[in-house]
Amino acid sequence: MKIVTAEEMYDMDHGTIQEIGIDGKLLMENAGRAMADRIRKRIAKMDRIRIFAGSGNNGGDGFVIARTLFEYGCRVSVVQVVPDEKIKGDALFHKNLLIRCGGEIEVARKELDIETILQETDVIVDAMLGIGVSGMLRDPLAQIVAAINENDAYVIAADIPSGLPANEGAGEFQAVQANETIVAGFPKMSAFLEKTAPYYGSWETVSFGLPAAITERHNHRHVWTPEKFRKTMPGRKRNAHKGNHGRGLVVGGNVEMPGSIAMTVSAALRTGAGLVTAATAKDIIPTVSSYCTEATYLTLNDTDGYLDGSNAIPFENFDAMVLGMGLGRHLEAGELVQQAIEAQLPLIVDADGLYHLKAMLHQVKQRKEPVVLTPHPGEMAMLLGISVPELLQSPFSYTKSFAENYHVYVVLKGMFTIITTPEGIQTVSEAGNQGLAKGGTGDVLSGITLAMLMQEQTVPDALNNACFVHGKSAELLTETNHSVYDLTASDVITGIKAVYRTFQT
Prior knowledge:
Structural class: alpha/beta
Radius of gyration: 26 Å
Subunit structure: Homotetramer.
CATH topology of the largest domain: UDP-N-acetylmuramoyl-L-alanine:D-glutamate ligase
Number of helices: 20
Catalytic activity: (6S)-NADPHX + ADP = AMP + phosphate + NADPH + H(+); (6S)-NADHX + ADP = AMP + phosphate + NADH + H(+); (6R)-NADPHX = (6S)-NADPHX; (6R)-NADHX = (6S)-NADHX
Strand order of the largest sheet: 8-19-18-17-16-15-14-9-10-11
Protein name: Bifunctional NAD(P)H-hydrate repair enzyme
Number of strands: 19
CATH superfamily of the largest domain: Ribokinase
Family: In the C-terminal section; belongs to the NnrD/CARKD family. Belongs to the NnrE/AIBP family.
Largest sheet: 10 strands, mixed
EC number: 4.2.1.136, 5.1.99.6
């Protein structure tokens, strides 16, 4: 499933009309009917439905929705929120069709009209404003949106909640708070941003006839789905042995955080790594081994329980490595990061490793083997030298620019995890829930990522599948034996088996 900006969606519409020759009125008919079919499944026969329609294509969709629901025998009428002279083109064509079919249209002229109408409404369909909106609304639309948000009626948005920006980078805005949104074509970027996503409510997409010859122009931003996981996750051969599934190295841990590396090691093994070695301080090994008996160990030199750089790690014995969890921010630990950058194997950097890496990014660009960074927003903002709010306002743009500039893969963790390749291709993992907002879950993701990176799949597929397994484990656990309150990082490790059993059967 693609993720598009407003400009990309406009290009698809215009290309379909101008190059393919499909009439805009037909596209509007297709979109409105597809949305109406979904709305029909969500309403009761006697519900009083009001379609709030504007002047553009979104309003035109609203007129088609109203006519389609009217044909189904629903109790539906249209509230036109702009003067008659504003309705033009394809939208006017479908408005006139609705009138000739016997549909009702009221033109809202006062705020009082809206409040009176809403008192007699069970379901609101929001088709006032489409994807071209930015900034704060002006009256009377601002008053209408405020009245809808204060009302108890169930709100379904057509394509996008009115007033909500479609793209990232939004400043202040006023938008309809929908209970659900029926998206035409492809989800817009704002459906995956922390600030704007809640306005959609739940959402789903409907197709309305855009040909692949046009839509494939915009193929650089996607949602990673369970179907993609099933398709790309490699199987296991009956004659496989442990060496076929990777020899992973995990470097980190200190006396104050021995559990971090233990969870990474355990997660890597549970995900399917053939062999995993924990490289850490001598005093930490008993803690890790009691938690994960299947691992092997490499004792590293330390100073008072904190790893230092006076180690000669045999990197050539491993297929991939991850470092950073529990590493510490003292100067000596940075020497380990420097050694890892110079090593010739795929490298995952997390947690404290990212802190040290910032000063070495110029070296990362020269590296031949893949480098994967797995920051949370605070760590990503640190790497970029910006504030967290700035990052969260435009996470797609910031991570794309960073990944392309330094030739790295970036896994920006969050409510919607964004995975970006050095070529600027981006995917979003929706898997997961608020139960993952706990210490240690990032360490678990690092271990899962290490294991995935060593399987027979591309690096992008490995990263997407790692995020999928991590998030789906949390989802499945909270659907059965856990809540989002009591879920722990260790629980997520035990839940990995359920993901495989559910999605790999």
